[in-house]
Amino acid sequence: MLRGRGSRRRLALVAGALAVLATTACEPLPTTLPPSNVIKSGAVLASGTSLASPSGRFKLVMQGDGNLVERSPSGRSLWTTKTPGNAGAKLVMRSDGVLLVQTTAGKTVWSTPTSGVRGATANFGDDGNFVVKGTAGQPVWANGMSAAPATRAPISERHTSPQQVTLTKMYEGLVATTPYYNAYGNCTVGYGHLIRLGACTSADKAKKWDADALFAADVVEHENRLKSSLGSVPVTQREFDTLWDYVFGHGSITAKTSPKMYAAMSASPPRYVDVPPILRENGDTLLRGLCYRRYDEADVFTGGFYDRNATSACS
Length: 315
Hints:
Blueprint: H1 2-25, E1 38-39, E2 44-45, E3 50-52, E4 59-62, E5 68-71, E6 77-80, E7 90-93, E8 99-102, E9 108-111, E10 121-124, E11 130-133, E12 139-142, E13 153-154, H2 162-172, E14 175-181, E15 187-190, E16 193-196, H3 202-206, H4 211-230, E17 234-235, H5 237-250, H6 259-266, H7 275-282, H8 288-301
Antiparallel strand pairs: 1-10, 2-7, 3-4, 4-5, 5-6, 7-8, 8-9, 10-11, 11-12, 13-17, 14-15, 15-16
Helix pairs in contact: 4-5, 5-8, 7-8
């Protein structure tokens, strides 16, 4: 008798549980919790929630006051959208490619200049860099955060940081997998990879190029060019990255190709303070994009973020 009542009770509990499952199975999955370390197109980081880098080292917190803040393992603020005073605001990855902080009234108080990159995602890496990427994986915006220490080591021992790779890719831009002509009329493909000086051949145009593989090879090539001329010079990671990006666009840093830069960096001791003015002077050309890039390089060299923020300096 007791056994029978217990069996009926268990059956009733199981039936109740199945009813709950049947109800919840029809409910849509929440879109306010982003998967892993990526905020996909159309998703939201709600007020009071956070996004962690893959290892959990860094956190991106959508604070209750409306301020989006990146925090270090110790909780220190590393980067912010500077949008406090907007209680309940959320971070939205719009389908048109714009990442924005939106108030409860629907007002945008911060956004990225990425309109038109449809299907973009926001990616939070273990290097601390928060990056908006297009569907082909090309970076179109980054907060440029880096926790690299400001210690110096010989150029020969350095390698280009992921942050600089991202910034350089943003400046070069991804132009599909077929050749195009750069500003100087030279046959180019992918992220500014030079195929040849002058016109593209029919074979160049017919070939399908791997932009990421070409860029990876270009990274190594320009590292080697920098190391061949200034290998023993001690630099921080930011200083190395700046010089590497300069070489990426300029070809080399030698007494012949870049006398002022070479003189400053090969001096004993190196004249580090001379480099930012040299960069800005080099960017003072009719090519506004180059001007922006040189001013951003100068900012990175002196410890700034790996981001594109020099638009007012070249107006």
